[in-house]
Amino acid sequence: MRTYLVLFSILLVFLAGCISTESKVGDTTTAVNMVSVTDFTGETSTINSPVERVVSNYGLIPPIIYLFGEGDKIVAGRGVMGADEFIDAVDPEFKTRSKDIKSDNVEEIKSLNPDVIFAPSWGSQQGQYPQVKGLGIPVVFIDIETASNYYKTLEMMGEVFQKEAYAQELIDYYNQSTNDVLKRTASISENEKPRVLFLVYDQKKNSYWTPGGEFYQNNLITMAGGKTVSSNLPTGKAQINVEQAASWNPDVIITSAHTMEYPSTKVKEDVLNDDGWKEINAVKSGNVYAMPFDGESWDTLGPKYVLGLYWTAKTLHPDMYADVDILNLTSSEYERFFNVSIDEVTLVGDNIE
User: Fold this and answer.
1) Using CA atoms, how far apart are residues 115 and 337, in angstroms rounded to an integer?
2) Per-residue pLDDT tens for 201-246?
3) pTM over cut 0.85
4) Which Gene3D superfamilies does this entry report, sorted A to Z (predicted)?
5) Is the dihedral of CA 291, 216, 319, 171 positive or negative?
């Protein structure tokens, strides 16, 4: 008898460790497991799996969710600056299904009944999130400001959506591409590396900013075989004007923006037509280039990481990358990762033909 009791106790412990329940929807019964994910703040959230309803309060997250083929799970969220042209091409029903809500509207978030909320880590102390957590809704805080953080985000998404093998496939692809670029640029001498200003137009503030310190765009330029003129600034987005740009006098200017309404090509046009910029070397020599934009700027850490890296490297060193066809690479990635034709996407920018 004692033996049976011991065996029965072991069985109960085993079943409890599986952390599995069943939920009935209509006449359908589905197994619901729990997934534990530790985010960038060090907090661990327990999430129902499979995830069916996602709220994103971080503009970089929706494209990544689509990269995992789970875009139809998003019930609220928008891309950076509300620019969703690429997602709209991939999923024409996105804006109908996904609400554009304020991140601090707890009642509206609650009404959506999400399985998980993705939010930026720098907002983790904002008042709405403790309230949301108090309602039993898991909040996963993300920080995508470095390549290593992006890889970690992919791993976390793999855990959340139960696609760990696919997450590793993506990371392997990014590493392979990065290593190819680094191997090529390793042969470039310091004298051959152009001094580059990465210039971003902030439509909300009607001003320019450039990356400081270890901000990703500076690392992008370095990996691609350039020298960033703003590396000595504090890490982050540094507001600049034409006087500061003139004092640096860069050899190359790469323009960027985050809306199709005011894309990188328009920023480039503004620079070329402004007399204040005309004496800067990059402008005088015609070395001002618009970063490609397809609803997502290719200089952000996200699904277009490889495209942005090869584009920047080829723009700075075209002869070294004569074998890289940016348009073909773009078409291949669109079809491989998003099942969308390049003909269905609005793509603007330089050096993509």
Assistant:
1) 25
2) 988 888 999 999 888 999 999 999 999 999 999 888 999 999 999 9
3) yes
4) Nitrogenase molybdenum iron protein domain (3.40.50.1980)
5) negative
Q: Give the distance, in angstroms, between the CA of residue 10 and the centroid of all CA atoms in the same chain.
A: 45
CATH architecture of 19-168: 3-Layer(aba) Sandwich (3.40)
- One-letter amino acid at 153 equals T
- Sorted by where each begins, the domain ranges of the chain are 19-168, 188-344
User: Looking at the predicted structure, is the pLDDT value of residue 21 above 90?
Assistant: no
The verdict on whether omega for the bond into residue 50 sits within 30 degrees of 0, i.e. cis, is yes
Q: In angstroms, rounded to a whole number, what is the distance separating the alpha carbons of residues 225 and 229?
A: 13
d(CA 326, CA 162): 32
Q: Which residues pair with 240 in a beta bridge?
A: 208
Kindly report, residue by residue over 104-141, the tens digit of the pLDDT.
788 888 999 999 999 998 877 777 788 888 889 999 99
- Model confidence at 338, pLDDT cuts 50, 70, 90, reads very high
Reading the block at residue 336, the tokens are: 């491989």
What tokens appear for 337 in the block? 């990762």
- Domain formed by 188-344, architecture: 3-Layer(aba) Sandwich (3.40)
**Alpha-carbon span 53 to 115, nearest angstrom:** 5
**CA distance from start to end of the chain:** 79
Count CB neighbours of 208 within 10 A: 21
Which of the two residues, 294 and 6, has the higher pLDDT score?
A: 294
Q: Distance from CA of residue 330 to its chain's centroid?
A: 17
d(CA 335, CA 71): 16
